[in-house]
Amino acid sequence: MRGPKFAKRRRSPAPAIIIAIVVLLLGCWLFNLTCGGRKKEDTSQLNEYVNRARSIAEGSSSVAQAWGSLQGNLPQLIAEPDNLNEQLKQIENQCKDLLDEATSLTAPESVKLPHSALLICLEQRYRAMKNYRPDLINALTAVDLGVYAKSISEDLQELVYSDGSYRFFKRSLAEVMEANRITEVSLPDSIWLANWEDAAQRKVESFLVGLKGSELHGMAVGTVTLSPEGYVDKEGGESVHRLPDTDEIKVTVTVENQGNRTEQNVKVTVSLYSVVDTNPTRQEQIIESIEAGRSVQVVFEGLRPRSGRVRNVLEIKIEPVPREAFLENNQKLIYFTLGS
Fold first, then answer.
1. What's the CA gap between 130 and 146, in Å, rounded?
2. Measuring CA to CA, which residue among 198, 257, 161, 157 is closest to residue 71?
3. Which residue, of 39, 103, 274, 340, has the fewest CB within 10 Å?
4. By residue range, what is the domain housing residue 311?
């Protein structure tokens, strides 16, 4: 005989719902302890990052202003290539310092992407200045400007790209700041080369041609003194120095740099001959460096002229420096006699 059938009792869903609610509340509590606390910590870290990044961006803007000022004064600065190189080196070092500072900066997770753009921007600026310096200095003495125009154009294009990287950084970081309600900090504009056309090779080459066209190279023989001293007489419309009897004379030549560029390895030659002995005695000296607008005295000793009222000829020449156009004042003739 069959026993009675009992229907299965359906379990009430209430306990499961209650358990689910408890788990959810517990999860929210744990989330607030962990994620919620982290969010607050991240906001503090984000504020610190934004302030340091702003300082770096402002530093880069200041370096850009210094570079722009240097560019505007290039026609004057190229007169002293060593000084120009030193100023460009300072700008290069400042770019490297800013890159190192940004590299050492710890970026919160929310700004990893903007920070990468900042690093790319600063790397581009440092690389551009590192290459621009030797390219420009070498171009000042180059004959083929096309080669250096291409290199300098690429350096300037790097700066244009860096401006694009900075714009991305600024826009991306601003979005993160807005999402986190950071409104008290603003990022500066940091533009090194606003016009892409300024980086075009044809424009760079035209600029270099104009820059080199402002060069002026000119050496001149200045005052010449003889020792022992005498007096100047006129003979046949020419000035003739009458010196006392002596076995040797000393000649002091003032060499003038009348150009606007420092000149290197300037050769000065003195030749002595007479109307009875046309085989000259020569001496030469090298001036290693003479700055624009400066004068240097060169002394020649041990010159043995003819005596007995024989006319001696002292011929002084300065060898033309590269790209010197006016040569008429590069030499001087002095006539003199010895004895009465």
1. 20
2. 198
3. 340
4. 219-338
Last-in-domain residue among 151, 186, 213? 213
Tally of structural domains, the chain: 2
Asked if 71 and 208 sit in the same domain, the reply is: yes
Please write the tens of the pLDDT for every residue from 15-69: 443 444 344 434 444 444 443 433 443 588 888 999 999 999 999 999 999 999 9
Q: pLDDT of 78-115, one tens digit each?
A: 878 889 999 999 999 999 999 999 999 999 999 999 99
Is this prediction's pTM over 0.90? no
Give 239-284 pLDDT, tens digit per residue: 999 999 999 999 999 999 988 788 999 999 999 999 898 899 999 9
One domain for residues 277 and 329: yes
For residue 215, the Cα-to-chain-centroid distance in whole angstroms is 18
Q: What is the bridge-based pairing of β-strands 281-290 and 238-243?
A: unpaired
Give the CA dihedral 301, 302, 307, 312, nearest 10 degrees.
Answer: -50
Q: Quick one: which H or E segment has residue 273?
A: strand 263-274
User: For the stretch 172-198, what's the b/e string if a residue is b when 16 or more beta carbons lie within 10 angstroms of its beta carbon?
Assistant: bbbebbeebebeeeebeebbbbeeeeb
d(CA 60, CA 58): 5
| Residue linked to tokens 């505007």 | 72
Q: Give me the DSSP letters along 157-199.
A: HHHHHHHHHHHHHHHHHHHHHHHTT--S--PPP--S---GGGG
Rounded Cα distance between 200 and 156, Å, is: 8
- In the structure encoding, which two tokens stand for residue 125, read together? 């600026």
Same domain, 89 and 56: yes
Backbone angles phi, psi at 94, to 5 degrees: -65, -40
Among the listed residues 49, 129, 132, the one whose alpha carbon sits nearest the alpha carbon of residue 95 = 129
